[in-house]
Design a protein that fits this description.
This protein is an alpha/beta fold. The protein folds into 2 domains: 8-179, Endonuclease, Chain A (2-Layer Sandwich), CATH 3.30.870; 200-401, Endonuclease, Chain A, CATH 3.30.870. Helix content is 42%, strand content 24%. It has 13 helices and 20 strands. Strands 1-2-9-7-6-3-4-5 form an 8-stranded mixed sheet, sandwiched between helices. α1 packs parallel to α2 and α6 runs parallel beside α7. It is globular, with a radius of gyration of 21 Å.
Length: 401
């Protein structure tokens, strides 16, 4: 089978910053390794999934070399997403002087809380963010296959330093004896910046809306044109309704996954299609590879980062999103979304009726219910509820801790 046509990289300068969007797998891997190899003083990395295979070893060995030449290295991997990664694989990094931590080990009531961020910061000057984890199938291209189609953004400029400060605060929280949710909420709020056209919006488990959800809600509520490429699409009713309203008052283009690592996620997305189509949305499913991109364009605003448009990413996971308000970049990212359409299946009411029998519609609803209600409710109770109850006890003067 012939290779798919490549997507051109995108580079822009915005308010003393340079932003480079790497779309091909080779370009993403090159950007990742170049950032490590060129670091002079420090490297901070946070990744949800880290796998012991070819790319994982390339990154580990590059980090070891950085330690040898005197670079301070800190690596955080998620205790759930990287649960299969053996400590023996990480030992060469520790022996070279790197600090390696797992976010929320697989024990205790915090087990359901996940750090879904993908961040690399070099020398407080360059930040790489996006959806790609450290595994070979996130850095491949070619014909139809089981690799992930994604993007990686490289940002250089003044807003990298606040992200470094946020990562340092998160490291202190991870290494603390008492990992309270309230302390995590404070550092997520402090790490979110709102001054200027470029800023960070952090997601996490808040009693109300976290900084990312709050900013996204405000942007969608006033947007007339929204384009999205989303690997996982299962928003709660309020965020689904917002998109339906955009479709009715303007234009909504949604590209989702036809193929994924879990068919339940595709089923959950398909449960949402009918409501959006009735509002006039354009919906497409990307078919050549497993889709892993997380991209939102709302009028002149672009979101790039780790968060999917689903309930867990919007309300629960620790996430990082770069929010850029720039009409020129928005136009280029809309063109990127349009460039995907020839490789997609167009979804309309006729297609939806043809593929959805009664049993399949039930399966779609159950998948959606699983992601938006069951998983969300259990995780909130385990992670937010206990701290909230403790706070009430302190207010009553009965908590002696």
């Amino acid at each position: 089978m012939s290779a798919l046509p490549p997507f051109d990289p995108i580079s822009v300068k915005i308010a003393d910053h340079r932003l480079d969007i790497h779309i091909s797998g080779d370009a993403r891997l090159a950007a990742l390794l170049d950032a490590i190899d060129s670091a002079r003083t420090s490297l901070r990395l946070i990744f949800y999934i880290y796998v012991d295979e070819a790319v994982g070893r390339l990154v580990r060995d590059a980090l070891v070399r950085a330690c040898v030449r005197g670079v301070s290295v800190a690596l955080v991997i998620d205790g759930f997403g990287s649960s299969d990664l053996a400590d023996s694989f990480l030992q060469p990094l520790r022996e070279a002087g790197a600090r390696v931590d797992r976010f929320i080990p697989n024990k205790g009531r915090r087990y359901l809380l996940r750090n879904h961020q993908k961040i690399l910061i070099a020398d407080d000057e360059t930040a790489l963010i996006g959806g790609a984890n450290i595994a070979a199938d996130y850095y491949q291209d070619g014909p139809l296959g089981d690799h992930w189609h994604d993007l990686l953004a490289t940002l250089t400029g003044p807003k990298v330093a606040p992200l470094s400060a946020y990562v340092d605060a998160l490291l202190n929280w991870i290494r603390s004896d008492k990992q309270s949710i309230r302390a995590l909420q404070r550092l997520l709020s402090a790490g979110s910046t709102s001054d200027g056209p470029i800023g960070w919006r952090m997601g996490g488990p808040f009693e109300r809306l976290n900084p990312f959800a709050r900013a996204l809600r405000a942007d969608l509520d006033q947007a007339r044109q929204v384009d999205m490429i989303q690997a996982y699409f299962a928003p709660d009713f309020s965020f689904l309704r917002r998109l339906a309203r955009v479709a009715r008052r303007g234009r909504l283009l949604l590209v989702t996954a036809a193929r994924s690592d879990n068919t339940t996620t595709v089923a959950a997305a398909r449960h949402c299609y009918g409501r959006l189509l009735r509002g006039g949305a354009e919906i497409y499913e990307y078919r050549p590879a497993r889709l892993h991109m997380k991209l939102i364009i709302a009028d002149s605003i672009v979101y790039i980062g780790s968060a999917n448009y689903d309930t867990r990413s919007i309300f629960l996971n620790v996430e990082v999103m770069l929010r850029i308000d720039n009409a020129g970049l928005a136009d280029q990212m809309r063109a990127l979304a349009q460039a995907h359409l020839p490789q997609c299946q167009k979804i309309d009411q006729h297609w939806l009726k043809r593929v959805s029998g009664r049993f399949r519609r039930l399966r779609w609803f159950l998948a959606y219910f699983l992601f938006t209600t069951i998983d969300y409710t259990i995780t909130r109770r385990f992670n937010i509820g206990p701290d909230r109850r403790a706070g009430r006890l302190r207010q009553l003067g009965t908590d002696k801790d």
